[in-house]
Amino acid sequence: MHFELNGEQQQLADAIRRWIGRDYGFETRRAIVHSESGVSLEAWATMVELGLTALPVPEAHGGFGGDALSMFAVMQELGRGLVVEPYVATVLGAEFLRQGGGHGALLERVAAGETKLACALGERQSRHDAFDISTRAEDIDGRYRLHGEKLVVLHGAEADALIVSARSAQSAVGLGSAANVGNVQGMDGVSLFVVPRDSAGLRITGYRTLDGLRAASVVLDGVMVGPDAVIGPVEEGAAILDAALDYGAGLLCAEALGVMQALFDTTLEYLKTRQQFGAPIGKFQALQHRMADMAIHLEQARSMALLAALALTRSAGSAGSANADAGVNAGVNAGAGRDADGDLAMRRRVVSAAKYRVGLAARFIGQGAIQLHGGMGVTDELPASHYFKRLSMIELTLGDMDHHLERFIAQPGFREAA
């Protein structure tokens, strides 16, 4: 399938690339990472000025109503520049709000860049299963009291509000077992809440992660929120959670693609300039074969990341054009085909396939690039190690390869009826 960005998408991607090349170089990023806050208010202001925070927000709430294909172009460029600002966390939080309806005023503040969001979903026992929720929500005369702990909340300490998943106290805890991977049916009692960072009983402990970004541990000790904090119907948040997580996984696939492309390019340049025995090491046939294998992995990952963006665009009901419909149908029909669950099963299948294939490519390209750089590849002074660290963290975020392979297999239509 042939795909090209439209004019507006390409212009935005070019603008982001120019900004990163001019004001967000490698040394600038290193300084931001090692600063006390770990993020740059100046960089965030530029992202807002470029319209990045408004892009995924519906037009009714001051945004541009950009679909997953538009976000695909943006995330590639942010991945290429290893941008550490809390953009993915905020955009994923905005998707929860969009899926749930309501919260228009909050979405308007997100679009204007005035509010940053974070998603507090993972727990100590849940690993990659976001439906394994032990955080409790008690109904107290129409208000809700939250008890629980959330771990590895990306940019939790930088957020103005958290999206928190919880289970009603009356429901069974830990229903998100392996048998329920990728299946929202039977996931009763899941609710989603917007929790302001200044809420009483909320404790946030931030720290820096392996890849230079920031995460946090969050404790909810009797945090009280009103009925207006609920996202979507009470105790029916599983479907929203499922859809938003797929959206987030699609964003990460696009970001990983940009990271891999940058890592491939810098490795190729190194092979052209590094000399051994009086010749560039890129002339050695064994290294050429390794680069060819890396290029194949990169293109296969690009195809799957794009297919995921197309699937998410169609699933969201966007007017994503005939190209989106044709692309998704071609990709799905060539694979497991359509089934009774329609777009829902297709979205899950394609996103999990993409997350798995992108993770496989990230591991191969990352390890290959480090080996081709030799001992220099693992130093903090060279960009290669930073690209590889980010790829490693993306692979572990919103489900690793094993999780998404299991989820893919669990979808209807994978095995033919006997």
Key descriptive features of the protein:
418 residues; 10 strands; Pimeloyl-CoA dehydrogenase small subunit; AcylCo_DH/oxidase_C; Butyryl-Coa Dehydrogenase, subunit A, domain 1; Acyl-CoA_Oxase/DH_mid-dom_sf; 3 domains; Butyryl-CoA Dehydrogenase, subunit A, domain 3; alpha+beta; flavin adenine dinucleotide binding
What does this structure look like?
This protein is of the alpha+beta class and 418 residues long. It has three domains: 7-115, Orthogonal Bundle (Butyryl-Coa Dehydrogenase, subunit A, domain 1); 118-235, Butyryl-CoA Dehydrogenase, subunit A, domain 2; 239-410, Butyryl-CoA Dehydrogenase, subunit A, domain 3 (Up-down Bundle), CATH 1.20.140. It is built from twelve helices and ten strands. Strands 1, 2, 3, 4, 5, 6, 7 and 8 form an eight-stranded mixed sheet that branches. Strands 9-10 form a two-stranded antiparallel ribbon. Helix 7 packs antiparallel against helix 8 (285-315) and helix 8 runs antiparallel to helix 10. It is globular, with a radius of gyration of 21 Å. Keywords: FAD, Flavoprotein, Oxidoreductase.
